[in-house]
Design brief:
The radius of gyration is 24 Å and the shape is globular. 26% of the residues are buried. It is built from four helices and 19 strands. With 320 residues, the chain is of the alpha+beta class. Helix 2 runs antiparallel to helix 3. The protein has two domains: 175 residues, no CATH class; 66 residues.
Length: 320
């Protein structure tokens, strides 16, 4: 029995045809990119004379504070008392009202307490004293992903990002990760550039240079994006071929342009344009892994969405 494919599934269930989208799997490999090819993590190109893009948003940082000796004694006594009550009564580790009040006073809103070094930890917003230079993430030629919504006259897409965590760039939606910019450009307008190093950065957001092996595929959506009866038909087809719909037939995994995003950590979260309200469309999946040695979210995926009405509107971002 041959392995089923998205195209074979659509042949068997024609109602799925409108959901079949073109996509490009990028297959990054550590190497030395050339100026002629698509690449990940550099080299950098930018219009002659134009300033290199910088991030001026608020960044998140870790703040630590030492716990005074007297408060260490109090926290140690509380911990011992809680453990003793749990041992004697076989119950949960609970605090009395006085213990809870003391714990709240000592923590003062901190996220956690290091009982070895006796320091509290909290995440704080730090307005940058100076703008932070963006880092080249991805450069792709139109020939390697012809299905993207290329604006007239453009043939290069560059994705840059700020290699720091942010939580104020998605409006009301929760997001904690790097800020991303997309630039649709003409190769003829670009020249080699050595961008300034970012003033501050998280090492997990600094990609190692990679060459790409673009592969054109067809992609089907996560089951949450299908009507119930179509998903049932897709699962029946997959079962007849000894597999499951979400394994090999939907949401192709890896670095990907176009196609569909996976919702592997959450249920479907519709991403709407903050500028016009239009439902946004998946453009790029950034995957954690060895090449290019990045990690986003909890070693998961970062999805970048664009507005179908205007590519100039701010991108949408989601972590899975």
């Amino acid at each position: 029995m041959t392995d089923p494919t998205p195209a074979g599934l659509v042949d068997a269930v024609p109602a799925l045809a409108p959901y079949l989208r073109p996509a490009t799997l990028l297959h990054p490999e550590a190497g030395t990119p050339t100026a002629q090819g698509s690449s990940l993590g550099g080299p950098a190109f930018w219009p002659d004379g134009a300033p290199w893009p910088h991030c001026t948003a608020t960044h998140l940082d870790d703040a630590h504070e030492d716990v005074p000796p007297r408060d260490r004694e109090i926290m140690t006594a509380i911990d011992l008392a809680v453990r003793e009550r749990a041992r004697e009564h076989g119950g949960a580790h609970t605090l009395t009202e006085d213990e809870l009040a003391e714990t709240r006073r000592i923590m003062a809103g901190a996220d956690s307490l290091d009982h070895v070094n006796w320091r509290t930890h909290r995440t704080v917003a730090e307005p940058p004293a100076d703008a932070v230079a963006l880092v080249p993430l991805l450069r792709v030629r139109a020939a390697d992903a012809p299905h993207l919504p290329w604006p007239d006259g453009t043939d290069v897409l560059q994705a840059l990002w700020c290699p720091n965590d942010h939580d104020d760039i998605q409006g009301e939606r929760y997001y904690y990760g790097p800020a991303v910019e997309l630039h649709w450009q003409r190769a003829a307008d670009l020249a080699p550039r050595t961008p300034p190093p970012p003033r501050r950065s998280d090492d997990e957001y600094l990609p190692e240079p990679c060459v790409l092996r673009p592969e054109q595929i067809r992609d089907l959506p996560d089951r949450d994006e299908l009507p119930g009866e179509l998903h049932a038909s897709a699962e029946e087809f997959a079962e007849r071929h000894g597999t499951e719909y979400h394994r090999g037939l939907a949401c192709a995994a890896g670095w990907k342009l176009g196609g569909w995003p996976s919702w592997r950590s959450t249920d479907l979260i519709p991403v709407d344009c903050g500028a016009c309200g239009a439902r946004m469309r998946h453009l790029l999946t950034v995957e954690s892994g060895d090449d290019p040695d990045l990690s986003v979210g909890r070693h998961g995926e970062l999805h970048v969405f664009v507005c179908p009405e205007d590519l100039g509107h701010p991108v949408g971002l989601d972590l899975q």
